[in-house]
Design a protein that fits this description.
13 helices
Length: 400
């Protein structure tokens, strides 16, 4: 390893990994992200059933993202005196209640209420995920545990859209959300059985966010992370029109290529653990560098179906390691305020999702999808350069 973290044993740090608790958190991720992605595949029947436009139904996605962003910034301070086990169980409970509200929603306001609750659960969970992981496994195993947890995202990416749309046709969209509620119940039971009590550490306040952001290298790291996710979501939001108009493939091939992306993304998440144990900085730099090169490559060779298919899959493989790498970065760089740093990182990612989609749309309207992919690749190369020059995981010492 090219980075060594020097730290004494922190109070309550585990000498043996609690893998059962890590698996229960992975289940939580799978349930939350599945619920988050489902409206994309069920938007049309949801709009028809509620007698609203698809655009109005799409606000369910917007509401979730905006509440997740806001929650990520306040959740650590708002729950600073509460056992982290109880907080995590609360997020799983919100998943259940949210799914039930959406499943029985008679109108758009009820639908939005359910999605707001989901946004709170998503923002809160991601804010605390890295800090909690640090307390479930020894420091050396944190990257591996985070890669397990983030594999739930990749699995949800594979399952939510195709399975959601398929089941929606057979049993109806409301029943799909009832299944999500059942998944939430399973998660809650698993977490009750496996999560240990974790007393809150430190006295996180809103001022803490500013203090963390002002630490050397943290602000630059957050900007670099935001650029990486902005470049990715500009690409991912407009991948279908690219495949249809530039690569020239039909809907069946588009589905197959996206499935390949999801599977490669899952594998990339699993590979992230060993890669990060070897070198965090190299992983942080290499992944956006590869994605940026692939973006430029798709602009040049994307009209060739075989080349486009391979490059999209490689993009999925590279991006699989990105969230794990940045979460590992904050556990090593800000171990004493991992929750606050996690909130800042989640807020940066949520902002990047909105910025990538919005900026990509503006470029799409003026320069077409080729312009979007060219801009995406350029932003990712800029991010890689910024990481290479200025983002250095620092060795830290945590007092006993």
């Amino acid at each position: 390893m090219d980075e060594t973290v020097h730290r004494t044993q922190a109070p309550g740090e585990r000498e043996e990994p609690a893998w059962g608790a890590v698996v229960s958190m992975t289940l939580g991720v799978f349930g939350l992200v599945t619920a988050e992605f489902l409206p994309a595949s069920l938007l049309t029947p949801m709009a028809q059933d509620l007698n609203i436009t698809e655009g109005m139904a799409g606000q369910a996605v917007t509401a979730t993202a905006m509440v997740a962003l806001a929650t990520s910034l306040v959740i650590s301070a708002a729950t600073r005196n509460i056992d982290r086990r109880l907080v995590l169980l609360g997020f799983s409970t919100l998943l259940i209640v949210s799914s039930l509200l959406v499943a029985v929603a008679p109108s758009l306001p009820f639908l939005l209420l359910g999605r707001v609750l989901l946004g709170a659960a998503i923002g809160g969970f991601w804010t605390m995920s890295a800090a909690v992981t640090m307390r479930l496994v020894p420091q050396a195993l944190v990257p591996r545990a985070l890669s397990m947890i983030f594999s739930g995202v990749a699995a949800a990416t594979i399952v939510a859209a195709p399975v959601g749309s398929y089941l929606g046709e057979i049993i109806g969209w409301r029943s799909v959300f009832l299944i999500t509620a059942a998944l939430g119940v399973l998660t809650l039971v698993a977490q009750v059985a496996t999560l240990p009590s974790m007393a809150p550490s430190g006295q996180t306040r809103m001022r803490t966010l500013i203090d963390v952001l002002m630490r050397p290298g943290i602000g630059l790291g957050m900007v670099a992370a935001m650029l990486v996710f902005t470049g990715h979501f500009a690409f991912f939001t407009y991948i279908r029109p690219f495949l249809e108009t530039v690569t020239g493939v039909g809907i069946s091939a588009v589905s197959g290529i996206l499935l390949g992306f999801g599977i490669a993304n899952f594998l990339g998440t699993l590979l992230a653990g060993p890669l990060l144990e070897r070198s965090l900085r190299l992983t942080l730099t290499t992944m956006p560098l590869l994605m940026g090169a692939l973006g430029i490559g798709l602009v040049s060779l994307g009209a060739i179906p075989a080349a486009g298919t391979v490059m999209v899959a490689l993009w999925g493989l590279a991006f699989g390691a990105v969230p794990v790498a940045w979460s590992t970065w904050l556990t090593r760089t800000v171990p004493d305020q991992a929750e606050s740093a996690g909130g800042l990182l989640v807020a940066a990612i949520q902002f990047a999702i909105a910025l990538g989609a919005a900026a990509g749309g503006a470029i799409f309207d003026t320069s077409g999808v080729i312009g979007v992919f060219g801009a995406s690749g350029s932003v990712l190369l800029l991010a890689a350069l910024m990481i290479m020059i200025g983002v250095r995981p620092r060795a830290v010492a945590v007092a006993a």
